[in-house]
Amino acid sequence: MNTSELKTAFQRDGFIVIEDFFDGTLMDRLDGLIRNYYGENPDFWHNDEFLSKAQTEVVPWFPQRECVHDFDAVEKYPGFADLTEAILGAEWVAQYCMVMFSKQGTAGQAWHQDCPPDDPTQHNLNRLVYTSDITDEIGGQTVVVPGSHKRGVLSFGDPVGEFEDQVVLRPKKGTLVLLHGHTWHRVLPITGSYRFSTNYRSAPKGTPDDITDVCVYRNMRYRFSTSSVIEERTA
Ligand SMILES: O=C(O)CCC(=O)C(=O)O
Ligand SMILES: [Fe+2]
Fold it and tell me: Bridge partners of 15?
């Protein structure tokens, strides 16, 4: 697909998957740094209330904030910025690079929208890089509901229930997934070893820096900066 076809698919579906976007050598280098950073048994960062209500178990790492500059290579990778610009428009903003690690036996991530869709024009863009394969043996597949970025707020209901029209993604080493922040998405439980993805978050020009501070789940809205449930959803 060329850039304009990718853009059309993104606008229709709220996500696109591009296999073999990145070369294997770069992926292996970043994958090694990530495995080395986490070791086998990292601690969770969230409090118990979040873990039990959100059914989301991730340990984040912001490598560029620790001056690990190897991760800059993705931002400079041929085609990466151009594709972002085609989708977000001129003067889009790069927010941060965040690795999200989930260990064996954990819940993955419940259904969510990265930011509230109250204003459809205000959103983040996840640029998800997979440095190793997500497989059915490991679990941690990414699940999306196509077109849901245009369906308003994520429906109230079972935080980890299935949607009839959900699509399960199994990104491979070198795959780039672009995912609109309003698209309903989740990560399945981690059944074998551990899984991680690296997200280069970005946003259209004029988007507030803290756009992803409030996350919408099927049972609540949660504010990360204050670690608080700001709305218990009942409908
Ligand atoms: O790790 C993934 O595959 C998806 C992560 C996610 O929900 C996000 O980056 O907002
Ligand atoms: Fe997300």
Answer: 179
**Which domains occur in the chain, in start order?**
3-232 (2.60.120.620)
Average pLDDT, the chain: 94
Give the separation between CA 23 and CA 209, rounded to whole angstroms.
31
pTM: 0.95
Q: Which residues does a 6 A CB cutoff place in the pocket of ligand 1? A: 100, 109, 114, 126, 128, 142, 185, 187, 197, 199
Strand partners, 220: 232
pLDDT tens digits, one per residue of 65-92: 999 999 999 999 999 999 999 999 999 9
Q: What is the mean pLDDT of residues 176-194?
A: 96
Ligand nearest to the CA of 125: 1
Phi, psi dihedral angles at 24 (to 5 degrees): -60, -35
204 contact partners, CB below 8 Å, separation of at least 6? 88, 89, 92, 93, 121, 123, 125
| Ligand with minimal distance to 187 CA | 1
